[in-house]
Amino acid sequence: MSARWGESWVDVTLVKAGRTKIRYPAEVVADDGTRITVRAPWAGEGVKDFGFVRFEPGDVFTEHYWRDRWYAVKEVRAGDGALKGWYTDITRPALVSGDELVVEDLDLDLWVSADGALIVRLDEDEFAASGLAERDPGAAEEAERALDALELLARQGRFTALLD
């Protein structure tokens, strides 16, 4: 399902290493010109089990993208509405292109459990292997800075303030 920007649906396109990683329709919840919030069911195939959380059919993601920040925060809820936590992708700032919301994934991720007790940095090995630091040192620094800042907010119990 695709629609023009400004209507109730938009296609979210996650790009990694110059290729489309995933593309899915999402309901536009809000757009204040800086932060875009969309809602979509789990768009992955089957179940993704991280060991500390499972993303599975029926889960609902409320996703917050910023045009001026180097991350996207995804609130994850089970099909019954129970909050699982927040999955944060470190990305370049979001771009709107035609009927798409395009986000470039920079490999680093952060998981924050619903109770804030579990905070996990993810994919640092993929980030190091990506070569971004050599190709675009400024972007690599922004990515690392964003991950550090988000982790600090989570450890201080202030993570959800990003979404207010």
List the helices and strands and how they pair.
Blueprint: E1 9-16, E2 19-31, E3 35-41, E4 48-49, E5 54-55, E6 60-66, E7 71-77, E8 83-91, E9 95-97, E10 100-113, E11 119-122, H1 124-129, H2 132-135, H3 137-155
Parallel strand pairs: 1-10
Antiparallel strand pairs: 1-2, 2-3, 3-6, 4-5, 6-7, 7-8, 8-10, 9-10, 10-11
GO molecular function: hydrolase activity
Keywords: Hydrolase
Organism: Streptomyces wuyuanensis
Describe the structure.
This is DUF402 domain-containing protein. GO terms for molecular function: hydrolase activity. InterPro entries: DUF402, FomD-like_sf, Ntdp-like. By secondary structure, this protein is of the alpha+beta class. The protein has one domain: Beta Barrel (FomD barrel-like fold). The chain is built from three helices and eleven strands. The strands form two sheets. A seven-stranded mixed barrel has the order 1-2-3-6-7-8-10. Strands 4-5 form a two-stranded antiparallel ribbon. The chain starts with 8 loop residues before the first strand and ends in a 9-residue tail after the last helix. The model is unreliable at 1-6 (pLDDT under 50).
